[in-house]
Amino acid sequence: MVRLTEKPFFLSDKEIAWVENTLSEMTMEEKIGQVFCPIAGNPEDQALTEFVQKYQPGGMMFRPMPAQAIRQAHGVLQKESKIPLLLAANLEAGGNGICSDGTYYARPMGVAATADKQEAYRLGHVSGREANAVGCNWAFSPIVDIDLNFKNPITNVRTFGSDLDCVIDFSLQQMKGLNENGIATAVKHFPGDGVDERDQHLVSSVNSLSVPEWDESYGKVYQAMIEAGTLSVMIGHILQPAYSKALNPALADKDILPASLAPELINGLLRDRLGFNGVAVTDATPMIGYNAAMSRKKAIPATLNAGCDMILFNKNIDEDYQALRDAVNSGEVSAERLDEAVTRILAMKASMGLVAKQQTDSLVPAAEALDIVGCPEHLDLARKSAEKAITLVKDTQNLLPISPEKTPRVRVYMLEDRASGGFKDGGTSEDVFIDKLKAAGFSVEKYNYGQLNFHEIFEAGVDDLKAEVDLAVYVANYDTASNQTTRRIDWIRLMAADAPWFVQDIPTVFVSLANPYHLFDAPMVKTYINGYSANDMVADVIVDKLIGKSAFEGKSPVDPFCGVWGTNL
Fold this sequence. Notes:
Layout: H1 13-25, H2 28-35, E1 36-37, H3 45-55, E2 59-61, H4 67-80, E3 86-89, H5 108-113, H6 117-133, E4 138-139, H7 164-179, E5 184-190, E6 205-206, H8 211-215, H9 218-227, E7 232-235, E8 238-239, H10 241-247, H11 263-273, E9 279-282, H12 288-291, H13 296-306, E10 311-312, H14 317-330, H15 335-351, H16 354-359, H17 376-389, E11 391-395, E12 409-415, H18 430-439, E13 443-446, H19 454-459, H20 462-466, E14 471-476, E15 508-512, E16 527-530, H21 536-546
Helix pairs in contact: 1-15, 2-15, 3-4, 6-7, 6-17, 7-9, 13-14, 18-21
């Protein structure tokens, strides 16, 4: 039963009447549409019009596009939709989660490294303000995962770190900043990522904590977010075997399923034990972690029966609609269960004020609102945040600050500095480092991966290198992104020729723009810096700090030494 007058909805009598009347007038086909939140492909007006008229979805999501284009598309969608749409975005690191020209504020771990909770509020505020300007109203954030396993390739800098109190406090502030700008939150990824070292995009990953361990960690995080009023929770394709067995002792190991298919985790743990009354939405269902667990045509209705109210994305949208249609017609999914899911979705929309906005034609703000997208004010806030976040993890050789007087000839090694899919945010930062070091008076050469030869790898020694190089600067841009098995350093296969074999003879600095755990693979480096957010602005600030223009202020939200002996030396 959905409690419409209670948290998180708190609906008025008028809003309840709208929910009940709307539900009573809907056809089964319209109800099925509300359960789905597809990803948008073609942004052209005609294509969007035809899509909404055919499928009547409850929500939609675009990948980032220019602000003007995304505003136009959102306007068409809302105009053509009988019931206001939830328009979603991954507002994890700034307005760039919806607008390609939006502000990349900072990755959550970078925000946590400032040790200032107000920075988490500003992250939410900037993200929410820019998203609202283009008509977005639903954030798939905050990420409330705990980065307990440094080898996990998908949590990493997307989290607020490994400290429970930090994750709770900073997530609450980010949610506040989003909510104040009219953006509802979907905290993610229940029952909690960051324990396994695998990515649920690729496998059904496992939260292997015991029941008491879960209660004292992820349980406290979700309890705090529920008490603070999050309207939705995103359900991951993540198993929690201990709780599944505790709540359903008859379950055999082979029958334990990811949370998105597990009624004991959604209805039992999230709703009954934690008291969540809002919308449960799956993580993206094209993920292998979802599809490998059950035949898709069975999984779609099973997801609804497990307690999820909304299904995110599709493989084949017609197949998915038909699978749910067949399940409702056969009674596999009861009419009551479908109505319950749709009631929650309608209640969420009413609670967000979308119905009132639809009546005043203000679901998408006027074009003038676009002025704040990527505006100087937001970019200035982001730079100030970076100034406080960038962390000097160690400088045991007392090398810093560097100067052209001490080490005039610099060789820069760029590691993984490429835009390579996986919805990577920051692009490349090679030019920023090289140009800024040159401007500071250094003679800079880039390590040339295209001209490796036998002599350099097998014959050139320390003296040969010293004749050319006074300082080696490594810049790693292994940015956290989906569908990757690891984000560790991948040295050149031939004798690891680009690794710092010369570290005892040539002063060496290692800068990580993203992944904070590279000391695991480069423990020999004596000077190491974490930037957390792989973008040009952070790269620019790091060079300022390298040359002594500003001090390092950041405090690591995780153990950058990875619990491994010698990495701190």
